[in-house]
Specification:
Mean pLDDT: 95
CATH architecture: 2-Layer Sandwich
Order of helices and strands: EHHEEHHEH
Radius of gyration: 15 Å
Strand order of the largest sheet: 2-3-1-4
Number of domains: 1
Helix content: 25-40%
Low-confidence stretches: none
Number of helices: 5
CATH topology: Alpha-Beta Plaits
Strand content: 25-35%
Distance between the termini: 24 Å
Number of strands: 4
Length: about 110
Amino acid sequence: MSIAVNLYYTGVNGNARKFAQEMEESGTCAKIRAEAGNLKYAYFYPADDPETVLLIDCWENQEAIDVHHASPMMQTIAELREKYDLHMRVERYISDDGIPQHDQAFIRQ
């Protein structure tokens, strides 16, 4: 069972994108991706909202998330969120056993 957390960062004047760019360029994202239990840490830009950035953050389990939340990286992230004055909306999903066979017909490989 893996856990996916979708974090929507919203700001003004392109600040959400500047935040994501600084996270990448500073190496913070690379450090998070290297943490034990991290499955995915990737930013996406919604086509209909230039002031929002979506972070898809996936972990093997809750314990991996807890270790990440206790890491020094969280202070860095919090400081950057403050720097860019970002607000957040969060969604959390727990995986099931994959895509059912009857849904496979709708997926173009």
